[in-house]
Amino acid sequence: MRKSKKVNAIVGAPDLRSPHRIAVDTTVLLLGWAGAQDKHVAKHAEIYNNKGFKTIMFNSAFDGKHPLYLKTSRDIDGLVPTLDSELADPGRRLLIHTYSMNGVFTLCTLLYHKRFIDLLKRTDGLTMDRRVTVI
């Protein structure tokens, strides 16, 4: 079995201060689809950044080509430190945006992780996109 690539989370800063109270205290967590590249998800993150939200993007190493590599979609080591740091502020809230089943797999892995068992208690919204067109 081939070794999976090391994947890290990417943090995006808001482009402007949002007049909306929710954007000030909220980070959008974008969990990419199988085979997604950072540049593809970054275009979606930019939409949130333009609205004043801070973003965290994460794409697992799973490329969707072979089911034996599905376990790579469960590797969240590159996301854990970034999410820990972001949630260190007890007032910080999340919006979660998952793309396709790979995003859902990543979210489920987070929820099974002891450190993030109560993640949904700090989540104000969850968007599940089922089909992504690369823009």
Automatic annotation (TrEMBL):
Localization per record: Endomembrane system; Nucleus membrane
InterPro entries documented for this protein: DUF829_TMEM53
Keyword DNA-binding: no
PANTHER family reported in the protein's UniProt record: TRANSMEMBRANE PROTEIN 53
Primary localization class, coarse: membrane
Domain of life (superkingdom): Eukaryota
GO cellular component: nuclear membrane
Pfam families documented for this protein: DUF829
Keywords: Membrane, Nucleus, Transmembrane, Transmembrane helix
Protein name: Uncharacterized protein
Topology relative to the membrane: Single-pass membrane protein
Keyword Metal-binding tagged: no
